[in-house]
User: Which sequence fits this backbone?
């Protein structure tokens, strides 16, 4: 069936809005050339976006020899979204605008429990955070909630979370009292959404989420692959050592036992910052722990490369601290790699902190842009 004229017009409006968000102030002629449409079409689309409060005319661009061009500028703070990453002991909250820029983030301590009391306290924290960051009323397009567990395809139900000790399906919402749409995300998938947003041309990669539990997400040709049962990328439950230590799921030798951020944080009193500071300052005990961690990480990374033949992106809590150790990780992986000698396919996530919370928010930003 041929696409209707209104569908073409909406797609052009979306493309124009994306271009203005990406380029900042831009001339109408430049936008027309970029999108392959006429100047009158651009003028019409700009008027429609101005009526929605999403762009504005912002004076004139510098002259390149002829008449100065009128500029179209985005209003990225016209809308925003909030992401909340739920862990066993914290809420990580992030607010992002239409450009995906961080408007604010906080990580208060709150011990998770399945109770109305926890839900009420968490909802109060999120509402207060939204007030402080100015993401209120019609300006907020949605709240994404990241959780360490298996999420239903419609994003409404947490099916299971060993880390949060939830072993039955349960609907999970926060009492925000404003009718905002909410959606659940697996924490690794949410972190991967951030990587997709910031990559520009994402291609194919495996996102390895190294947080208190280990997770993963697979992207093929720019699309997140979730699998038949929403469990694609569960690298934490890949058997690394068949006779190894017991995983929290009850099986032996899973990678989560060796890749969890808790292996590093717990010896330092619960703070990854302190662990890496001591390991990097020459503490031998902490150095041995880090060496063992890197060896397991390199092994998993090269196995992912052999299976998927794509980049491996290191994210999660630990990923933000691995910059000084990337060459060492690559060297260990390269020694096990049959086909490559440098393991340059292992790289760090572009978002060092709050990747899961940001990704959960970006879902609603992308949804809003697509519906402009």
Assistant:
């Amino acid at each position: 069936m041929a696409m209707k004229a209104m569908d073409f017009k909406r797609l052009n409006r979306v493309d124009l809005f994306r271009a203005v968000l990406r380029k900042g102030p831009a001339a109408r002629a430049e936008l027309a050339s970029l999108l392959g449409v006429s100047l009158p079409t651009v003028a019409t689309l700009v008027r429609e976006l101005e009526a929605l409060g999403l762009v504005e005319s912002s004076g004139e661009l510098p002259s390149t020899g002829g008449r100065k061009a009128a500029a179209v500028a985005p209003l990225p703070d016209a809308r925003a979204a909030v992401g909340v990453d739920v862990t066993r002991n914290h809420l990580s909250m992030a607010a992002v605008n239409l450009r995906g820029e961080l408007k604010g983030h906080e990580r208060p301590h709150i011990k998770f429990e399945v109770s109305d009391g926890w839900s009420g306290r968490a909802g109060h924290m999120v509402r207060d955070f939204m007030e402080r960051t100015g993401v209120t009323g019609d300006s907020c397009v949605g709240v994404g909630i990241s959780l360490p567990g298996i999420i239903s395809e419609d994003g409404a139900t947490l099916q299971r979370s060993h880390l949060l000790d939830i072993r039955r399906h349960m609907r999970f919402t926060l009492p925000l009292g404003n009718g905002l749409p909410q959606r659940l995300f697996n924490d690794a998938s949410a972190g991967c959404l951030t990587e997709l947003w910031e990559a520009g041309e994402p291609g194919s990669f495996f996102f390895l989420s190294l947080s208190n539990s280990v997770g993963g997400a697979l992207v093929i040709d720019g699309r997140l692959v979730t699998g038949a049962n929403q469990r694609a990328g569960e690298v934490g439950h890949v058997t690394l050592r068949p006779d190894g230590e017991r995983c929290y799921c009850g099986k032996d030798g899973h990678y989560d036992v060796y890749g969890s951020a808790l292996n590093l944080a717990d010896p330092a009193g619960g703070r990854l910052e302190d662990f890496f500071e001591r390991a990097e300052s020459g503490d031998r005990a902490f150095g041995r722990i880090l060496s063992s961690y890197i060896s397991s990480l390199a092994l998993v990374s090269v196995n992912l490369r052999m299976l998927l033949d794509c980049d491996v992106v290191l994210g999660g809590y630990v990923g933000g601290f691995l910059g000084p150790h990337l060459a060492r990780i690559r060297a260990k992986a390269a020694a096990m790699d049959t086909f490559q000698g440098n393991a340059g396919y292992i790289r760090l996530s572009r978002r060092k902190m709050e990747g899961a919370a940001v990704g959960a928010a970006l879902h609603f930003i992308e949804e809003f842009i697509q519906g402009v």
The chain has twelve helices and 16 strands. The radius of gyration is 23 Å. The mean pLDDT is 91.
